[in-house]
Amino acid sequence: MRYGQERLRKLLQPEEVRGNFSGTVHGIASLDRAGPGELSFLSNGKYTALVPNCRASILLLPKDYVGEPPPGGAYFLLENPSLAIGILCEEIERKRNCPPKPGVHPSAVLSETAKIHPSASVGPFCVIGREVCIGARCRIGSHCTIGDRCFLGEDILLHPQVTLYPDCAIGDRCIIHSGAVVGSDGYGYVWEKGKQQKLPHVGRIVVAEEVEIGANCCIDRARFAETTIGAGTKLDNLVQIGHNVSIGKNCLLVAQSGVAGSTELGDGVVLGGQVGIAGHLKIGSGVQIAAQSGVTADLPPRSVVRGTPALPLGIAGRLYVYWKYLPELFRRVEKLEKGQENVPHQL
Prior knowledge:
With 347 residues, this protein is an alpha/beta fold.
C-alpha cells in the first residue's frame, strides 16, 4: 500500500486535518510500534497517552482529541477512527485479493440440476449437489461442499473448505470462513431400550443477509422447522449454535460461545468469549453477557450479566469481592464458634 495525505483524505473524509504530511504511508501499525511512513489510529481511550510519542506519519484520532502533530506529521480527526481504519483495510484487501474469474473450475463436481449464475465462480474440487441455486457474483472457494437443495443469494463468499449440508439458505453478502459446517445434525437423543437413540433432524437452516460466520463454526439444522440467524449478525471463530436456535439481527457472538437448542436471542445481543447459554431460553434484545458466563435462565431486554450462573453485573461484581474474603470469614466464624470473643474484624 502507498497512500499520500490527499488520497487518504478523500478516502476517509475526516472532519478536520491537523498538520501536513508530504510523503506516502506504506503500512499500518499500532501506536507503540508505528514509525515514519506508517499510519496508526486511536480507537480505545486507554491508549490515549501513547499518542504524543507515536512516530507514525498519519494518525487517525477521535474528533475531540486535543493536541497537535509533530512537524511533518498529520492528525486526521474523525467521528469513528475504527470505522475509518476498516474502510482503509477494506480497500487494501480489495486490491490485494483479486476476485476469481466467473465460471466453474474443471475439477469441480456439479449435479446436472444445479443452477449457477454466470457471474459466480466455483473453485477447484468443489462438490455442488442437486437442485442447488447459486446467485450472482458468489465466490465459492476450493474444496467447498454444498449439499442438495441449498440456496445461495448474491455476492456471497465461501472461503475454502466450507461445508453446507442439504437444505441451507444463505442470504446476500454473507461471508463464511474456512472449516465452518452449516446444517449438521442437532445434538438430539432419547434413552430407549438401554441406549441413546438418535433423533432425526429434518429441518433446515436460514441465514439472513450480511451475516459473517467465522472459521470452524458449527450450526445445527433444526429438528423440525428452522434454525435461523438474523441479518447483520457476526459469529466469531469456534462458535456452536444448536438446533432450532433463533438469533436476531446484528448480534455479536465471540469465540467459543455456545447456544443450546431452541434458545432465542433477540436483536443486538452480545456474547463475550466462552459464554454458554442453556437450551429453551429467551434472551431479550440488547442483552450483554460477559466472557465465560453461564446462562441458565431467561434474561430481559438490555440486561448486562456476568458469571456462572449469570447475575446482573453489579451483583456479580460484589459477590466476586466477597468471594476473595471467604477464607478469612470462615476463620473468624470458627473462632466465634469456639467461644473466642472480640475477634477483630479484618474484612
